[in-house]
Amino acid sequence: MKKNPAKITEKSVLREYVEAIIIALLLAFFIRTFVVQAFKIPSGSMIPTLLIGDHILVNKFGYGVKNPLNGTVWIAMDEPRRHDVIVFKYPQNPSQDYIKRVVGVAGDRVEVVRKQVLVNGVPFVEPNAVNLEAEILPSPRDNMEPITVPPGSVFVMGDNRDNSHDSRFWGAVDLKAIRGKAFMLYWSWDSENFTVRWDRIGKIIP
């Protein structure tokens, strides 16, 4: 019995589509896991650097190729440095992602005196950080006892210093919890005014 050429061609085309979709999905998974990942900014803790509604891209291999399950580094590359803006798993709830700026690395002595951040006894100058409130609170937000950053960790703070839940309150971030370094805005939506912030699209994150 002769086979129907039309059916054979139909099956061949269907198989090609299925294979193409599977390859595309695997490629997308690989890129998202090891190369670059998109995140949305939900809060104002990084104002003025990042605004609510900003969508950013995060470089996931700049700090090394990691095991996606436990964060162990497979291939070591660079390490987080002071002033880097990083995305990481929130230490008190790893299912949440946080974004902050690195203020101290392993061995650094970090303290806050009347809103002034000191690293190893020297004022930490971050041009993008702001204090929007004049009031000095008797809390780690404005006065924090010296903390030495443990090995394999970083101390992070939001650029919006008076409105950021960060290492001043819950301690250092383990390097294994870091997802990557934020490097660019690819979209920005102002939900209050229902408009696109066109001037922010493509902006490199300082």
What's a quick, concise take on this entry?
The chain is of the alpha+beta class and 206 residues long.
Q: Can you describe what's shown?
A:
There is one protein chain. The radius of gyration is 22 Å and the shape is globular. The strands form 3 sheets. Strands 1, 2, 5, 6, 11, 12, 13 and 14 form an 8-stranded antiparallel β-sheet that branches. The chain has a single domain, classed as Umud Fragment, subunit A (Ribbon). It contains 2 helices and 14 strands. A hairpin with a 6-residue loop joins strand 3 and strand 4. The chain has 206 residues and is an alpha+beta fold. Helix content is 17%, strand content 33%.
Task: Tag the structure with descriptive keywords.
single chain; eight-stranded antiparallel β-sheet; globular; alpha+beta; Umud Fragment, subunit A; 14 strands; 206 residues; four-stranded antiparallel β-sheet
SSE blueprint:
Blueprint: H1 5-35, E1 36-40, E2 54-59, E3 65-66, E4 73-75, E5 85-89, E6 97-105, E7 109-113, E8 116-119, E9 122-123, E10 143-148, E11 153-157, H2 167-170, E12 173-174, E13 178-190, E14 195-196
Antiparallel strand pairs: 1-2, 2-13, 3-4, 5-6, 5-13, 6-11, 7-8, 7-10, 8-9, 11-12, 13-14
- As for the CATH topology, it is Umud Fragment, subunit A
Rg is 22 Å
Mean pLDDT: 91
User: What percent of residues adopt helix (DSSP H or I)?
Assistant: 10-25%
